[in-house]
Design brief:
By secondary structure, this protein is an all-beta fold. It has strands at residues 2-7, 10-12, 18-26, 28-39, 46-52, 57-59, 67-72, 77-82, 91-101, 107-110, 114-118.
Length: 120
């Protein structure tokens, strides 16, 4: 099966930066796309950024110009560089992979989440 491990969350002051990392392990045959979602208290989970295997990114309007998504295909890893962080960025961030393993079609896999807190 597939397991996603996230790291990089923590406490940062407004205007600061963090880098999130998520690595997928298991019998992965092919990755279609990957990305990051976040969920703040009382709100629904929302897409932050995604990137295709080929490197085409998509960003939520709220993070454009501040966040950069990238991937390391050799390590099955997706990264999210977060700059100019705002208090409203505070949320649990979940990485996401759409991929195929042995004898399956493309399926969605989720990390357990890493907490990002932006506060003075």
């Amino acid at each position: 099966q597939v397991q996603l491990v996230e790291s990089g969350g923590g406490l940062v002051q407004p205007g600061g930066s963090l880098r999130l990392s998520c690595s997928a392990s298991g019998s992965i045959f092919s990755i279609n796309f990957m990305g990051w979602y976040r969920q703040a208290p009382g709100k629904e989970r929302e897409l932050v950024a995604s990137i295709t295997w080929g490197g085409i990114p998509t960003y939520a309007d709220s993070v454009k110009g501040r966040f950069t998504i990238s991937r390391d295909t050799a390590k099955n890893t997706v990264l999210l560089q977060m700059n100019s962080l705002k208090p409203e960025d505070t949320a649990v961030y979940y990485c996401h992979f759409n991929l195929i393993v042995r004898w399956t079609s493309y399926m969605d896999y989720w990390g357990e989440g890493t907490l990002v807190t932006v506060s003075s």
